[in-house]
Design brief:
CATH class of one domain: Alpha Beta
CATH superfamily of one domain: NAD(P)-binding Rossmann-like Domain
Largest sheet: 7 strands, parallel
Order of helices and strands: EHEHEHEHEHEHEEHEEHEHHHHH
CATH architecture of one domain: 3-Layer(aba) Sandwich
Number of strands: 11
Number of helices: 13
Oligomer: single chain
Distance between the termini: 42 Å
Helix content: 40-55%
Structural class: alpha/beta
Strand order of the largest sheet: 3-2-1-4-5-6-9
Strand content: 5-15%
Shape: globular
Length: 284
């Protein structure tokens, strides 16, 4: 049996869809049964409860061979991921696949990458087989700017001239599905990227080309962006952590395009242009 967490989120959801496309049966922990109704209808075995609840984990991880650990970012994320790993080991799980990030490195300074790195180390020392899935910026983040792209021909971010190796979460999910259903991925840290390194002015050019009208990237100073973001992120820790992560992008990161998606999934990663075409209804 396979277990997934985070199936109503971006990467966990993409992983669930990729497994369903392969016809693979799996179990998922969900807090809200209504949000997962389509998964249940597709044959997914749902465990209703909070992934933070040890009792829920003990029930969900019983009989599981491989588990995808995708936890929401937060102050207690490291504590909760350690608990997940401990329960997985106690329940006889053989292999844990952790959703991490490319920024999770020994010298990370922003809170979210630091937590990911510490969790990676804990998993490596657990005695369990492990695989780290390490993407960067999600193309799906642009969907949150769909309204302003549609109405104003602009998107607003505090990322200055920073560049990312942005990836479509569908490619992440496809790679996770391969890792969960084939051997040979134990002990691997997979840095997953899109096909090119892009700044956000360049991303605006891709939008302009696909949509056939001028789309502009507008840099917003971090204090002003933080005020806007605070309307959606009411937790102070999470708000600060996201702003620090964005500031790292703005300041410049040592990132690089990898061929890992092609290697794992057998096809090239989705380009930003293709992503825009696939979601054109959101932007027009």
């Amino acid at each position: 049996m396979l277990l997934l967490t985070g199936v109503t989120g971006k990467t966990g959801g993409a992983s669930a869809q990729a497994l369903l496309k392969k016809g693979i049966k799996f179990r998922a922990i969900v807090r809200n049964a209504d949000k997962a109704a389509a998964l249940k209808a597709a044959g997914v075995e749902l465990v209703i409860g909070d992934v933070t609840d040890r009792t829920v984990l003990e029930a969900a991880l019983t009989g599981v061979v491989k588990a995808l650990m995708t936890m929401p970012n937060g102050e207690k994320q490291l504590e909760l991921e350690k608990q997940f790993i401990d329960v997985a080991k106690a329940r006889g799980v053989k292999h844990v696949i952790k959703m991490s990030s490319m920024e999770a490195v020994p010298n990370a300074t922003a809170p979210i990458p630091k937590i990911h790195y510490a969790s990676e180390q804990y998993l490596k020392q657990s005695g369990l087989a492990w695989t780290m899935i390490k993407p960067n910026f999600f193309m799906q983040n642009f969907l949150g700017s769909g309204g302003t792209i549609k109405e104003q021909g602009k998107f607003f971010l505090p990322l200055a001239h920073g560049k990312t190796v942005m990836i479509d979460t569908r490619d992440i999910g496809a790679c996770v599905a391969v890792v969960m259903t084939t051997p040979g991925h134990e002990g691997q840290s997979y840095e997953l990227t899109g096909p090119e390194e892009l700044g956000f002015a360049e991303a605006a050019e891709r939008f302009t080309k696909v949509l056939g009208r001028k789309i502009e990237y507008v840099h917003v100073p971090m204090p002003a962006y933080r005020q806007t973001l605070a309307r959606f992120l009411t937790n102070e820790w999470h708000l600060n952590a996201v702003c620090e992560l964005f500031q790292e992008i703005a300041d410049g990161q040592d990132l690089h395009v990898t061929g890992t998606v092609q290697k794992i999934n057998g096809k090239a990663p989705t380009s930003l242009e293709q992503f825009i075409r696939d979601h054109q209804a959101v932007f027009t």
